[in-house]
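hey so u asked for the seq, here:
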Amino acid sequence: MSGEHILVIDDEPAIQGTLRAVLEDEGYRVSTAGGGEEAVRLVTDETPDLVFLDIWMPGMDGLETLAELRRVRPEAPVIMISGHGTIETAVKATRLGAYDFIEKPLSLEKTLVSVARALEHGRLERENANLKARLNVRTEIIGDSEPMRALREAIATAAPTSGRVLIHGENGSGKELVARAIHALSGRREASFVEVNCAAIPEELIESELFGHERGAFTGAVARRRGKFETADGGTLFLDEIGDMSLKTQAKVLRALEEQVVERVGGREPIKVDVRVIAASNRDLAAFIAQGGFREDLFYRLNVIPIEVPPMRQRRDDIPTLIDHFIAVFSAENGKRPKRMSAEALAYFLAYDWPPRDHDHGRGHRARRPARSPAPQGHRHRRRGTALAQGRTRRVRARLHPGRAARQRVEHDAHRRPPRDRALAPVPQDQDVRHQPAEVAADSFVGSQLLSTETSTDSNGVGSARDARVQLRPRVVLPGLRHAHAALARHGGGARRDGGGGHDGHAAQPRAPPAGGPRSRSATRRPRRRAR
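ran it, structure tokens below
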């Protein structure tokens, strides 16, 4: 990157001038010093992005100057240059923290390559330091209430040991923050912290995620893959929501904890790992064991050091501190000036009851619907459940495809509506349903139809329907039907095509109910239509 500051420390003015000319041609900003004392003063005032340091100099030599520079500005990379250097001197300079060693006379190409690599190394180190600082801010445990002081004591007790930790707390209480704090205070803090959300990974993939797989172990395994246990070797493995892990996977995790050995899916070679496992769950695992959902031996393997994370409603004294902390963090991220919360808003936060967050797995915030009670085992209930499901499906399809749903409704109504080209039967004048038996009168009345159309023919001979008078026409009564809806559904609204009437202009007379009482269902079905 052009404009970066490079400091050249050498007692020879010719070397200073040569390096200045070359580096300034590349766009760098160059300053020079003729000795170690002067260089230390310059570095104290302004941190350079790169330092060229000669080994043989009068007064404070190059190795002493290097040690002092590393003490004052450890983040600045240093390239050692010398015309009388030896392997022993180069090794000693590297141990003191030098990035590279170049012999005189300096090669232009090698010098520029070394400069580019050293500056890139410095940028990566600064970026890494910034990311760690931001991570520490994100994972900092805020609060000074009594429950938080007890939590910090438990973390300080568990961190230096190598024992496994089981963290229990509600969703959103900060179990992951506790796990990261334990890792940051442990002897494994320089190694990896690997997190696995057991609830977010499907059961058929969690073994591959934890233990890895070989190429061809299953469909889609096109290459060998390391699992989380191997990735966290020498560090910490955080198993979040371990209560949602299947019993089959629990058995394999138990073996890995007991023997510190894992096997990839599809592999036979045992792999030795050194991993500290921290588990967390929002469930009461002791009660879950009694229900048969969790292995008791795995529970005791994990519950070496139990830690309980208090919910927010038990630490209301920390709410003002948390509000100020998050306002400062979010304002810095978005380039805004920090703001202050009003007394009314703060009172709302303090009065809130802070219920447990019951969200879906995967870090969502939607409230989970309450579980329905199991439906009774019966044919009627199964049919009712199927009808409800079909109704929901139709409603969803109607919202997604309104045009298609409208066409289907029109076709459905046309199917149930009686044909319009059928002759309308007149109502016999001597028929009065009021003096018939109760069952026959009800069936005769319900079997009637209100017809509001009549047919006509235009000049082209094409039949059409138009609004006309309303006629009440009785139809054939099916004996044994006691419910009006059943009678209407079985007839479908059309006139009979068999000998019962309709074509000759006379309505069929209702038949009397059988003497032996209601017939069976098969006997009450509509007679099969004859072919024309």
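The longest helix spans residues 108-138. The two ends are 94 Å apart (CA to CA).
lmk if thats what u needed
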